Amino acid sequence: MIKISIIIPTYKPKSYLQECLESLAKQTFAKKDFEIILVLNGCNEPYKKNIEQYIGNNMNGINLTFIHTKEGGVSNARNIALEQAKGEYITFVDDDDIVSTDYLKELYKAASPSTISLSRTISFKDGEYKDTDKTIDPIYNKLYQQKTIKLNKARKYFSGPCMKLIPINFIQGRKYDTRFKNGEDSIFMFLISDKIRAINVASPNAIYYRRIRKGSATTSNRTKLEILINNLRVIGAYSQIYFKKPQNYNFLFFTTRILAAIHSTIVGIKNSISL
To answer: Which of 126, 249, 252, 263 falls 20 to 30 Å from 215 in CA-CA distance?
Structure first.
C-alpha cells in the first residue's frame, strides 16, 4: 500500500519544477512507499513534452503519475490528483518549492490517522537560499516544544494545504471549490477542519522551502474591487460551510478565518494597484 501521495499542480512550469521533483527523488523515505501525482493544467506544448522528457531521464524508480488536462486552474488540478491518489496520507507541494531530504520520513513519523503533522517552513527569495520570512519559523519553534497541539494554536499554517501531511480519511472525497482563484486553499483547509482533533509537529529535519518570486499567484497584483469581491465571497464560503453543520466545526477557528479574510482585504487594498 502507498503511504504518501504527493500532489503537485503545475502551469507553464520553468526550471523550478525540476528542482522540486529532484528534491522529492532524493527522499530518504522508501520509494515504494510514496507516489507523486503531477498535473499539468491549462497549457500544452512545449511544457508537456519537456515534463515527459525530464521524467523519463531523471525520475527512474519513482512512482510518478503524470496527468495533462487542458482545463486550467490549480483547484481543478488538485481535484484531479485527489481522485487518483492511493496513499494513506496526502501532502501538497507547489511546483516552485522544494523540500528537505527527510521531509516525508519525518512527517510520516509524526503522523497518525487522527492527526495532521506539520513541517518546519523556510521562505526564500528566488535565487537566495536564506530565510526571508521571520513569522512562520518562530511559530514552528514554539509549537515544536509542545509536540501535540490544538488547531487554533497552529491556525497560521492552515491558510494553505502545503507544509503538512493530511490523512486521506480527513478529505473523504471532498474537493476544492473551483469557483475561486484566490482563497481556495484556505476554504479547502477549513472544509476538512471538521476532522482535525489534534496536530503533531514533525522534527526540524522536515523542511518545506517556500519560494517567494515575482509573478507567482501569491504576489500577483489585483485591483481593489477584485480583492474586495473575492474576499467577501471567501467569507461567504466559510459561513456556508460552518452554518451547514456548526456542531462539526470549531467556532473559534471559524472566527479566526473570518478575521483573517477581513485583514487580507484591508492589507490587499492598501497594497493593490489603483482601479
So the answer is: 263
